[in-house]
Write a structure and sequence with these properties.
Blueprint (H helix, E strand, L loop, with lengths): L3 E4 L6 H5 L10 E5 L7 H12 L4 E7 L14 E4 L11 H9 L4 E4 L7 H11 L5 E5 L11 H4 L4 E4 L2 H11 L11 H14 L3 E6 L2 E6 L2 E6 L7 H14 L4 H8 L3
Parallel strand pairs: 1-10, 2-3, 2-5, 3-4, 5-6, 6-7, 7-8
Antiparallel strand pairs: 8-9, 9-10
Length: 259
């Protein structure tokens, strides 16, 4: 299938913009998981962006060691799960996270998670026990670099990788055609199309001054009028749109880049 292109000023699917939910009750429930005892910047920023982009309800789960950042009467949108002595999510957190996940329409893994082995294993365990759509971006993808099939074969997953992360993922799953930085545009599009046909996960890739979406064999290219926003902004915006238009995932993620 030929790829489609748009600019941030000329979205391909304007009808999705007009059909966005007008009430919070219909605008979806987003669960953000991240942070540690030393920093909650990433989940805090993700929460702010999600509200700004029109999510209906947003809740954040932090390790309980991060309670020190909040007054005793913390907002009910902030929840906690067991932490390690170093202040990141412990293996015991998985049960709590799974309970919170039952509430959500979509789950976003935010940054500031420690890279210690216990937290990594807890994250992997959690992700393999949920069917909710999952958005994984940035440093959290590193937890799955050696076992990418755990994400790629999930029915509902959006990965937002750096180009080098996508290269590593491709190598570790044995993709026949290597992903290289010297690929011409058409070759990259063909690669992304094949990748999204072979695996259930969708890909949202900001690379070389353009943003690519690959979903179920469809590929779009968005050329921002200005420099593309950060990967976190791209990922959270896509999560909100995917949450609100789950039956039109490709169009929703593609449209989100213009918003």
């Amino acid at each position: 299938m030929p790829y489609v292109t748009q600019t941030t000023l000329s979205p391909l699917y304007p009808e999705l913009i007009w059909n966005k939910p007008e009430t919070k009750a219909l605008a979806g429930k987003l669960l953000i998981i991240g942070g540690n005892s030393h920093s909650i910047a990433a989940p805090n920023e993700a929460y702010r962006i999600a509200i700004n982009k029109g999510a209906g309800e947003v809740r954040v789960v932090l390790p309980d060691a991060a309670k020190r950042y909040f007054p005793r009467t913390a907002t009910p949108d902030i929840m906690f799960a067991p932490s390690t002595p170093s202040g990141s999510f412990a293996k015991e957190a998985v049960t709590t996270l799974l309970q919170y996940a039952e509430w959500a329409d979509i789950i976003y893994l935010a940054g500031d998670m420690s890279k210690n082995s216990e937290t990594t294993m807890a994250l992997i365990d959690f992700c393999t026990h949920i069917s909710t759509m999952l958005v994984v971006e940035g440093e959290n993808l590193d937890s799955f670099i050696d076992t990418p099939h755990l994400l790629l074969h999930r029915k509902s997953t959006l990965i937002v990788p750096q180009f080098t992360q996508l290269q590593k993922i491709a190598m570790n799953i044995g993709v026949a055609e290597p992903l290289t930085a010297t690929m011409p545009l058409k070759a990259l599009v063909t690669w992304l199309e094949a990748f999204s046909n072979d695996y259930s996960a969708s890909v949202l890739l900001s690379y070389n001054h353009a943003v690519y979406v690959a979903c179920r064999g469809q590929v779009s290219i968005t050329k921002p009028i200005e420099s593309p926003p950060s990967s976190q902004i791209i990922a959270i915006t896509a999560a909100v749109w995917a949450m609100q238009q789950p039956s039109q995932l490709f169009k929703a993620i593609t449209t989100s880049i213009t918003q």
